[in-house]
Specification:
Elements (H helix, E strand, L loop, with lengths): L17 H10 L3 E5 L6 H9 L7 E5 L9 E4 L6 H5 L8 H13 L8 E2 L8 E3 L22 E3 L2 E6 L6 E4 L3 E5 L2 E3 L7 H11 L4 E7 L3 H7 L9 H9 L4 E4 L6 E3 L4 E7 L4 E4 L14 E13 L4 E4 L9 H20 L5 E6 L8 E6 L6 H11 L9 E6 L7 H10 L3 H4 E8 L9 H6 L3 E8 L18 H11 L1 H4 L4
Length: 494
């Protein structure tokens, strides 16, 4: 009898849009439906109940009071076995295995396949202009009890074009509903959409915008991660699938939008036109940004499919949530690839911890190869393209530590460091306005910077061979203990 072949780690994204994704998730038995939940409170309560759970269900909200029949909201894409499916990866992979498989499949030898402009698509089934424009009819909820209003843009990405260089960008920027034809467009300083806007406004011109509300999940994920300057995220997704993303041109701005998107808003972001936005429960677990003047999108056209699905991805903060789960998988893979491309050898693991929004705390495991290896790894991990925004702590450890395990990571930091000798700082690093630690003076002056700690929690290289051995079991002993006596924990009998 031949040995069974190991499970395949091959990647294949089996869907092209949100509806195809939902059909697969339904067949997996991971979707629940709720009829009659209110946007004022109930939908936010469901988010509080399910989004922190690793195995929480996907929920579709039907028949939301005050919204047209057939208008739906989908919540919690990235949990359970469907998270693996969403990235086109086998469901037997752990979160770390999934992250590294994602890196190997999509990042080691990345390719771009340019999007394809087509004449028509499902997004054009309904085209609303003039007095027919009304974003309040979509089931956008009040996500958190102290939010300043309804947020239609959480599972959204916004497409803009550089007015000088011509390249397109897709960025995940939140959007608050102001009235029937106006939503907020909050873009943090330094992001590519912000760069585009500043170029238009410097010339006194409005920025053309299309905002996709209910698109392909993996494209939304890419809108919320850090692609290289000048690279269109939808062309990355085309390369991942091996086929171009089909797009139609907006009738107002000419910007492209996915032909199979659920809902798209199109319009202009005019210089100096702002409205009070917020507060909003941020991914840091605070209402850090408060209520401030934020530029707006003046909507000139709405496109939507029949029975459209709005995609909701609210940040919960103060612990793991859906947003931190997908960012942890993707950003960890991206940082490891950036480090590898930057010449750092023998990296065994990188993990961006969910409890810190997959942005503020990174663990890096290496096989120490030379003096200064840990410091090199830590500084590049802290400031490479995938991590520079809002990173606060990078802990570098030896390869006997599983950096996805927060307890192991902190144990290594506590037992293998001397604080005075092991911590170095980066000053003036790029921070997020969601950081509650920014001082009032910094916010007033627009100084969105902070320090970053790089912690060398490896055994000191010069005397690593004399470092006391750990009393943690070898993998073989740990496996033997589980096999023989694991029944004591799960209640079964041997």
């Amino acid at each position: 009898m031949q040995d069974a072949k190991p499970p395949s780690n091959s990647a294949n994204i089996a869907y092209d849009d949100l509806r195809e994704w939902l059909d697969i998730a339904e067949r997996m038995g991971e979707v629940r439906h709720i009829n009659g939940a209110t946007w004022q409170e109930d939908i936010g309560l469901v988010a509080e109940a399910i989004l922190r759970a690793e195995q929480g269900p996907c929920v579709v909200f039907d028949e939301v009071p005050g919204c047209p029949k057939g208008f739906r909201l989908l919540l919690n894409v990235f949990a359970g076995k469907r998270r693996n499916m969403t990235l086109g990866l086998p469901d037997h992979l752990s979160k770390w295995e999934m992250s590294d498989a994602y890196r190997q499949a999509y990042l080691e030898k990345p390719r771009l396949i340019p999007h394809e402009i087509v004449e028509s698509g499902p997004v054009l089934e309904n085209v609303l202009t003039g007095d027919d424009i009304d974003v309040t009819k979509f089931p956008s909820p009040v996500w958190h009890e102290k939010d300043g209003g309804r947020y239609i843009g959480t599972g959204t990405y916004t497409i803009t074009r550089d007015p000088e260089e011509g390249w397109l960008n897709a960025g995940a920027y939140r959007a608050q509903v102001h009235d029937k034809s106006t939503v907020g467009l909050l873009i943090a300083k330094g992001h590519h959409g912000w760069i585009h806007r500043q170029k238009y406004w410097a010339k006194g011109e409005p920025m053309p915008v299309v905002m996709v509300l209910g698109g392909d999940p993996v494209t939304f994920f890419y809108g919320g991660t850090e692609a290289a300057y000048g690279t269109f995220e939808l062309d990355i997704v085309g390369g991942m699938r091996g086929r171009p993303v089909k797009m139609v041109k907006g009738r107002v701005t000419g910007l492209p939008m996915p032909a199979n998107a659920e809902i798209v808003l199109e319009g202009w972001c005019h210089p100096g036109k702002t409205r009070i936005e917020g507060p909003f429960g941020e991914w840091t677990g605070h209402y850090a940004g408060g209520a401030t003047d934020v530029p707006v999108l003046e909507i000139k056209a709405i496109y939507h499919r029949n029975n459209p699905i709005l995609h909701g991805v609210p940040p919960m903060g103060a612990g793991p949530d859906e947003m931190s789960r997908y960012r942890a998988v993707m950003r960890s893979a991206m940082i490891k690839q950036y480090m590898t491309n930057g010449g750092v050898p023998n990296i065994t693991q990188v993990w961006c911890h969910e409890t810190a929004g997959a942005r503020q705390l990174h663990g890096v495991a290496i096989k120490q190869s030379y003096p200064g290896h840990a410091v090199q790894a830590g500084f590049i991990a802290a400031q490479c393209g995938a991590s520079a925004y809002a990173s606060k702590y990078v802990i570098v450890v030896d390869d006997d530590i599983d950096v996805t395990n927060l307890e192991q990571l902190i144990w290594a930091m506590c037992t293998r460091t001397d604080p005075k000798q092991s911590i170095q700082f980066i000053e003036g690093a790029w921070d997020s306005p969601a950081d509650p630690r920014l001082t009032p003076e910094q916010r007033e002056s627009g100084d969105m910077t902070h320090s970053v700690a790089v912690i060398d929690a490896c055994r000191p290289y010069k005397w690593r061979d004399k470092f006391p051995p750990a009393n943690t079991p070898s993998p073989e002993v740990a496996r033997k203990a589980q096999e023989k006596f694991g029944w004591l924990l799960d209640g079964s009998q041997p």
